[in-house]
Specification:
Elements (H helix, E strand, L loop, with lengths): L3 H5 L13 H11 L7 H10 L6 H8 L3 H11 L13 H8 L1 H20 L3 H23 L5 H10 L2 H9 L1 H14 L3 H9 L3 H12 L3 H7 L9 H15 L7 H14 L7 H11 L2 H6 L3 H13 L15 H10 L2 H17 L4 H15 L4 E7 L5 E8 L11 E3 L6 H8 L3 E4 L10 H6 L4 E9 L2 E10 L7 H23 L1
Antiparallel strand pairs: 1-2, 1-6, 2-3, 4-5, 5-6
């Protein structure tokens, strides 16, 4: 049992409890919904990208669960920021093209932005959130110019650099207004004003936020500005935030202020000169999310830049077009429309089956087509093992926790299963819960997925079965004739691709 001295002794280096005042503030913010929530999908992405054995198809499967994230990833991959040689039309290709680290950073940043915009209680807060996004995209552009190895990291840091203030403004608008008054009238820093008004330390806020969002230590370091001038991202993020603040009226603009900012950035990038006006226009032109998120076209951006050069008023209020998320909402609605998607996937598969395309890319394309066109389903792609005694799952996409591709495993001797029977008939089959007397011999999946119906068919190459596609559905909706026809067409193209591979 501990004695009195044990009770009063703190661990070496431990922070006194009375100094840690940010935690209750953050708890209030989370309880009130003022802090943007990271979706389960984004958490899964962050976890997957940290695993050494994760593959592109696993990551694509998580992204496809979220129509909004799917739209954002595809739009970003096809933007002039990355300039793909050919249009990237599937999530699987986007993952392969961008890589795990970029996907992780973009998914986290874009997800937080969308959640933040939803939380904006006033137009003023909406402009603050817009300024945060521009701070992120400006930081990413500067990081690219400086040849930084992971510019997307700068995007997240720039985006989140305002998160403490935005959270305070949403949760405590009156106190935040007092803080802004101190900054504007007494010309003190936001950090000092935060301490005076809220009696909390800015660095404690940053530490609490990075713990909540499980951000990499690098990002925490830059947010707290502990890296100082030794950290290559810190000054770039600071200057990106300064430009965004001028553009959205949070700092005084004008040609003199822009020229001073241009000199500082030119020095950071080892350039003779740097035009803030051209930088803003070029960045907004490259980043298609500027129009998607905020409904700003090239002319709108030019008007804002002209107002910024003039130096009077708020450039963001010059255009009446600035809105939040309307385009994204429309995209998300169309992203889930099977009729709008199926033609695209069938065309891509037809082309792939005739060209020298890696078979794994074809499999990922087919799986994505099935998942996005056959709604409320979970997809397993399975093949024979070496001895051809078992069908073993290789790919899986779906929303059921604790289920993986390997959970689809069935012995070919289970001839009473309609799954095995379709290998002999070489035709698709269906199964519904009311057929309980007909065993699938997939007890784990039936139990954990609340399986109500299934659609399956063999993958045929040169008329011989080499595997099976299995579509699970937990709703009571039967598979329609149209869905079965789409299913058969997709599988046929996969078989043709295998045949083409064997002929090479």
């Amino acid at each position: 049992m501990p004695n009195e001295s044990d009770k009063q002794t703190k661990a070496p280096g431990a922070k006194p409890e009375e100094e840690n005042k940010a935690k209750p503030f953050l708890e209030k913010m989370r309880a009130s919904g003022s802090l943007p929530a990271i979706s389960e999908n984004v958490r899964d992405i962050c976890n997957l990208t940290g695993q050494s054995n994760a593959c592109a198809v696993d990551l694509a499967g998580v992204i496809m669960r979220d129509a909004g994230l799917t739209s954002n990833v595809l739009a970003t991959a096809n933007s002039t920021l990355y300039s793909p040689r050919y249009p990237i039309k599937t999530v699987s290709l986007a993952v392969s093209f961008l890589g795990f680290e970029k996907i992780r950073s973009l998914a986290l940043g874009l997800s937080l932005l969308q959640q933040s915009v939803k939380n904006a209680k006033t137009q003023k807060l909406g402009l603050l959130y817009a300024s945060s996004y521009f701070s992120g995209t400006f930081a990413m552009r500067l990081a690219r110019e400086s040849k930084y190895k992971n510019p997307e990291e700068a995007f997240v840091v720039g985006l989140l650099s305002r998160l403490p203030w935005l959270a305070l403004a949403n949760s405590f608008p009156e106190k935040y207004a007092s803080m802004e008054k101190l900054v504007g009238e007494e010309k003190i820093s936001y950090e000092e004003a935060c301490k005076q008004v809220f009696a909390i330390d800015y660095k404690d806020l940053c530490k609490g936020l990075t713990d909540i969002y499980k951000l990499p230590p690098k990002i925490e370091e830059v947010l707290k500005n502990e890296g100082g001038s030794l950290d290559p991202i810190a000054p770039l993020v600071q200057e990106a935030g300064h430009v965004a603040n001028m553009l959205f009226g949070h700092r005084q603009g004008g040609k003199d202020a822009m020229a001073e900012a241009g000199k500082r950035i030119a020095s950071l990038l080892n350039m003779k000169e740097f035009s803030i006006s051209s930088f803003i226009k070029d960045t907004c032109d490259e980043d298609k999310n500027v129009s998607r998120f905020f409904n700003l076209d090239k002319g709108d951006v030019e008007m804002m830049v002209n107002a910024l050069e003039w130096g009077k008023g708020n450039p963001a209020q010059i255009t009446a077009q600035l809105k939040f998320g309307e385009v994204i909402e429309k995209e998300q609605a169309s992203a889930g429309d099977p009729d709008a998607l199926i033609g695209h996937f069938l065309t891509e598969l037809m082309i792939a089956s005739k060209k020298d395309v890696d078979i794994n890319q074809v499999l990922m394309l087919a799986q994505e087509g099935l998942y996005r066109c056959l709604l409320s389903t979970e997809i397993f792609t399975s093949f024979f093992n070496i001895s051809k005694s078992m069908l073993v799952g290789r790919f899986y996409v779906g929303k059921t926790p604790l289920v993986s591709a390997e959970d689809f495993t069935i012995n070919v001797n289970r001839t009473d299963s309609p799954i095995i029977q379709c290998l002999s008939t070489k035709k698709p089959g269906t199964w519904y819960q009311k057929q309980e007397s007909v065993p699938l011999h997939l007890p784990y999946l039936v139990r954990h997925m609340n399986l109500r119906g299934a659609l399956f068919a063999p993958i045929l190459a040169l008329e011989q079965p080499i595997g099976i596609y299995f579509i699970a559905r937990s709703s009571n909706d039967p598979f329609t004739d149209r869905e079965i026809a789409w299913f058969e067409q997709i599988i046929a193209y996969v078989g043709k691709s295998f045949e083409s591979t064997r002929k090479r």
